[in-house]
Design a protein that fits this description.
The protein is 55% helix and 10% strand. With 325 residues, the chain is α/β, with parallel strands linked by helices. The strands form two sheets. Strands 1-3-4-5-2-6 form a six-stranded mixed sheet. Strands 7-8 form a two-stranded parallel ribbon. The radius of gyration is 23 Å and the shape is flat.
């Protein structure tokens, strides 16, 4: 039978609304019963857990009512409803821990608000291309059951004085009115240092407007800015974010995990994971994902049913030959 501590922890996680911990403890109980030889009970517990998880996902998959964008806002925001989860992404332990903390804070937002506190909601993601910054926005939206709004910077930035700042105000109005995850990708295009010699007055005004709007934002939306060039950002920006998370190229262990994950849906034969990871050194998570997809497609179009070590190495070599930004 379950220990008193396990039952207490199960009830505590339910009271706190921590579903991830609740399911984890429940699975531990099922595993414990299986070890005791109570196979039928363990099977029933696992089935109940699976049913509860499925119900949770169905509830979260329902689109959050979205106010119909008006005027120019339709061209400024692209909306989607991601279903990705943390398990769909390979992350360093430090980055994963910080994202899990943020998710937990937002799942208990009412509890925090009751104590006069607010969850982390303004993130700056920095690092090389393909390391998972943009994907992180989708993961957070999926985990929290929120819509993902991607800011269309090509429509936001204009050459006319004052117009960009006005459009930026429309976006922050949407952030206030509709809870979601709002992604400003390639953020250095509006957050560059005000003292750069090639800077123009309009960019300075846009940056100043952004700083003011971020400071005034008291919504429950998540604002995520991502950049490959943090050195170009104005220093004043860093103080406006609750967290600055740095992404790196994967190490060997993360390479192996990514390769296995991306090839998990297709049959593999005698792949030497460690050597494949060594061959892929210097590639990003995005590059590795594309290399695995290339290997699978090559096998399929040649009428074979499994990816070999040679197939994977060839795809990795081709991907490394592509000029990196």
């Amino acid at each position: 039978m379950a220990s008193a501590e396990q039952l207490k922890a199960l009830l505590q996680s339910h009271l706190e609304g921590d579903e991830a911990l609740f399911f984890s403890i429940a699975m531990q109980l099922a595993a414990h019963e299986a070890k005791l030889g109570h196979g039928k009970l363990a099977k029933e517990l696992r089935e109940l857990i699976d049913m509860a998880k499925a119900q949770r996902q169905r509830n979260q998959s329902q689109p959050i009512p979205l106010a119909k964008p008006r005027g120019e806002l339709t061209g400024l925001l692209a909306v989607s409803y991601p279903k990705l989860r943390m398990a769909d992404m390979v992350l360093s332990p430090l980055v994963a821990k910080r994202l899990q903390r943020l998710i937990k804070e937002h799942t208990q937002i009412l509890k925090l608000r009751s104590h006069g506190l607010a969850p982390r909601k303004k993130l700056l993601l920095v690092g090389p291309p393909g390391t998972g910054k943009t994907l992180t926005a989708s993961i957070l939206a999926g985990e929290l059951g929120l819509p993902l709004f991607v800011v269309r910077l090509d429509n936001l930035m204009t050459k006319f004085m004052g117009e960009t700042a006005a459009k930026l105000r429309l976006i922050f109005d949407a952030i206030q009115q509709t809870r979601g995850v709002y992604l400003f990708d390639e953020f250095d295009s509006i957050g560059s240092q005000r003292g750069l010699t090639n800077d123009v007055g309009e960019i300075r005004r846009v940056l100043n407007s952004f700083l003011q709007m971020v400071e005034q934002d008291d919504s429950d939306s998540l604002l995520i800015a991502a950049t490959n060039h943090p050195e170009l950002l104005d220093r004043a920006l860093f103080r406006r974010f609750d967290d600055v998370i740095e992404y790196q190229l994967p190490d060997k262990e993360e390479m192996v995990a990514t390769l296995k994950t991306k090839l998990a849906t297709f049959k593999t034969v005698r792949i030497q994971w460690s050597k494949a990871a060594e061959a892929a050194a210097g590639l990003s998570f995005g590059d590795i994902t594309r290399a695995c997809a290339d290997a699978i497609k090559d096998v399929i179009i040649h009428g074979r049913d499994s990816v070999t070590h040679a197939d994977l190495l060839r795809a990795i070599k081709e991907r490394k030959a592509v000029p990196q930004k």
